[in-house]
Amino acid sequence: MATQDVTRPVFLPVVIGTPRQGRLTEPAAKFVFGEVSKRSDIETELIDIRKIPIRMDDAGEALKDSEFSATVSRSDGLILVVPEYNHSFPGLLKHVLDTNLKEYIHKAVGVCGVSAGPFGGARMIESLLPVLRELGLVTIFWDVYFGTAGKLFDPATGKITDPAYGRRVAKFLDELVWMARALRYARENIPA
Question: Which residues constitute the domain of residue 10?
């Protein structure tokens, strides 16, 4: 296979994993989206689960939103920016994720945790990983933890106040791009 095929940009949408009003996750997701958008090796779009029309009167793939499903289907992986609520992830995120299955198989996923406390969603990530694995996604070994999120972003501008996060997100994206490319190559060239 030609090198240009292996190095072509990967498509990694950034998902805001909560519908709540006043969410601290939004500035973190916008920061991650901004960092992703600067890179020539990634194509992206911002997906807000608040905007995905989803019913509550059924479950799983019976509720599939065609637009979200098509985006996930053409993606090489996902970037989830998710808050920690009571040591876990938001229920609506699980509900949205459960609406697809085959679209996730052998695709990379990276998780950025957000919390009001100092641990940056570490417990949420710990509880989300088995769900992602069950869906067929392949998790990377690097996460980003946005702790004390209420103080991490300037309330007037929404800009991050700690420059170390640029380096953390870059390391996270380097690993995610590598995994997404490896899995894309395998999906395209190795029979399952």
Answer: 3-189
Are 104 and 76 within 8 A, CB to CB?
A: no
Q: What is the DSSP string of 46-84?
A: EEEGGGS---SSS-GGGG--HHHHHHHHH-SEEEEEEE-
The enclosing domain of 67 has a CATH number of: 3.40.50.360
Nearest CA-CA partner of 131 in 90, 182, 168: 90
Q: What is the residue-averaged pLDDT of the chain?
A: 93
Buried b or exposed e, range 129-144, using 16+ CB within 10 angstroms: eeebeebebbbbebbb
41-97 pLDDT, tens digit per residue, is 999 999 999 999 887 887 677 788 999 999 999 999 999 999 999 999 999 999 999
Query: Phi and psi at residue 191, in whole multiples of 5°?
Result: -60, 140
pLDDT in the model for residue 4: 53
Distances in whole angstroms, Cα of residue 61 to Cα of each of 16, 39, 58, 72, 98: 20, 33, 9, 13, 7
Helix or strand or coil: residue 190? coil
Q: How many domains does the chain have?
A: 1
pTM for this model (two decimals): 0.95
Contact 41, 9 (CB under 8 A): yes
Amino acid residing at 100 = N
